[in-house]
Design brief:
mainly alpha; 3 domains
Length: 310
């Protein structure tokens, strides 16, 4: 796709300044005393800005990298976020891969390594997320995410660091189930639903990951044609997403729920739910899978408008 190639080319051009900044910070790292708490704060704040103000987010990631000093595990945590920015916000896949390769060669913990693998995996699904059919990329993504889950789910990790293990495992599983819910096979869907059911009891039930995983499971159920089973799960997930201020996810999931209710002939309820989706439509521009979300909104709008006076 010509437009996609142009987008990638522009992304790499925009990433040149990012790569120069990384080199500059790392060259001066020995001058800085590592500050784990400052690194954590800046990275977390950067993640909170990535959807609404990406430029502010990457500046916070740079500040985190500076605060890491010569501590390679802290450096790799910040580099992972910068690489994810290059992939998600710039479309600079080659630069993102270089950053993940650089971070992966450092002396890092199992938790940092797995998080890097999770974020790197999304490079392979970028083309699919942007409208190009790329079954090989999806397979590479799923393979890497499964490797990450295999590493983090070992008994000794959960015994030694239960909270970090569950958090990282949940991150990997939510990414895996999200990919499979959109591009996976029926068999992959069945397998990952069982994995979700196995994992959910380990989570704090107030965690936003609960809603994400149930939502992904519901989308897989929906894809298999079980609309009556999927509809209430999707609606529950959308409400949960909105409560956690995950507004792009809430918008997309309300639209999915509306489609399910429409297909089981609960059309009045479907219209009401779709109005909730439309109320959040402006937020989907910050969604990493924005094209997919836009298509879902358009699909449900056309479905309802073609069959009634909206």
């Amino acid at each position: 796709m010509k437009n996609l190639k142009e987008l990638l080319k522009k992304g790499e051009k925009r990433a040149e300044s990012v790569m120069r900044m990384i080199d500059k910070i790392l060259q001066e790292a020995y001058l800085v005393t590592p500050s784990p708490e400052e690194v954590r704060k800046n990275n977390e704040l950067g993640v909170s800005f990535i959807g609404k103000d990406p430029e502010r987010a990457v500046q916070l990631y740079f500040e985190a990298l500076e605060k890491a000093g010569s501590d390679q595990d802290l450096q790799a945590q910040s580099l992972g976020n910068i690489g994810d920015y290059c992939r998600k916000n710039l479309g600079a896949l080659n630069s993102a891969q270089k950053i993940f390769d650089q971070a992966g060669k450092m002396e890092i913990s199992i938790f940092t390594r797995v998080r890097l693998m999770i974020m790197e995996a999304m490079i392979h699904s970028w083309r699919s997320e942007n409208g190009e059919e790329d079954s090989e990329g999806i397979l590479q993504n799923i393979t890497m995410l499964r490797s990450a889950i295999s590493l983090i789910s070992k008994d000794e990790n959960e015994k030694d660091s239960p909270e970090k293990t569950i958090q990282t495992w949940g991150f990997a599983l939510s990414r895996l189930t999200g990919i499979i819910s959109m591009w996976g096979t029926v068999e992959q869907g069945k397998m990952v639903i069982e994995e979700i059911k196995f994992f959910l009891p380990r989570l704090d039930q107030d965690s936003e990951k609960v809603g994400q995983l149930i939502g992904n499971m519901a989308r897989i159920i929906m894809n298999n044609g079980s609309f009556s089973e999927a509809a209430p799960l999707l609606l529950e997930t959308a409400v949960d997403n909105e409560a956690h201020e995950l507004l792009p996810h809430a918008c997309f999931t309300y639209a999915l729920a509306a489609e399910c209710y429409w297909k089981i002939n609960k059309k009045r309820l479907a219209k009401k739910i779709f109005q909730l989706a439309l109320g959040l439509e402006d937020t989907i521009k910050s969604c990493s899978n924005v094209n997919f979300a836009k298509k879902q909104i358009a699909k449900v709008r056309n479905l309802i408008e073609a069959n009634s006076t909206f």
